[in-house]
Specification:
ATP binding
Length: about 350
Amino acid sequence: MRSVGIEEELLLVDADSGEPRAVSGAVLASAGEDEELEKELQREQVETGTRPRTQMVDLAVEVRRWRGAASQRARAAGAEVAALATSPVEAHPSLSPDERYRRMAREYGLTVQEQLTCGCHVHVGVESDEEGVAVLDRIRPWLYPLLAMSANSPFWQGTDSGYASYRGRVWGRWPSAGPVEAFGSAERYHEQVGSMIGTGALLDEGMIYFDARLSRNYPTVEVRVADVCLDVHDTVVIAALVRGLVETAARAWRAGEPPSPVGVGLLRLAAWRASRSGLIGDLVHPVTFKPAPAETVVGALVDHVAPALSDSGDLTLVREGVEELFRRGNGADVQRAVMEETGDLGAVVQEAVRRTLA
């Protein structure tokens, strides 16, 4: 069974006002050697990471564990952690002290100054770069239902953005972010990455911000399209679906089935629609590329990977998780419901803090 690991970026916030707090230095300085906490671009956020796991129940335990560890360290620094993909209240991010980040700030200007977003990155093990690129080529149209499911960033600088995932729009400002063409081989993938770095528009390979890519550090495919989820269970459902996508794509590759010929233009529109709509209204269907209700599109994703989910023992977990998600709503729906009830973005953040650790 393929291993799965999750990286989550979390906001550091004031418990009362909900404003982001630039305390990552204190949080990381107090972390124990066994605590998987890392710095991120801005001092108002911190990243957690699980070890590779094969069982989703173990993955859920780890995600909860590292959220709890981050919360304990944040409280010692006078803050809380919130699994929010953008700050609902007005934010003025402050860059983490790192020479690479300072180079990025000089090169990319306002894109870096305003970049306070939190994503969820899912790593799934692959046997080789060749298998990994075959997977990347075949999962491209199926990534954007995951974005719709995870959407958790409706507010930006104190205003409702009109999007379920405004993080997706902000993140898209980076020059290499978003969907890509099918590569056809590992050799072609690495040639393309080298050519992109060779333009001088990217500092290094770490800035290959494709929606899904080969990991630089692990033998994995890394799917980066999702917002960080409010609810741990939603995070685990996303991870199970990603593993199902990777296994389904690898099987198709071994069977000689070609990837979808869909172009980047249509994929960008599917990504935009998922960011805009979330689970309310239509999405772009990954097979027909016509509008279809979100429940139909997510159902098509589950059906597409159902054999792989069944083999890994995750099918019931995913089906029940999807049902719960549509009944409860994603993070964007929850945030807007709290705002409608209270009229207070600080209350939105406080509810997010509670749900992050629930």
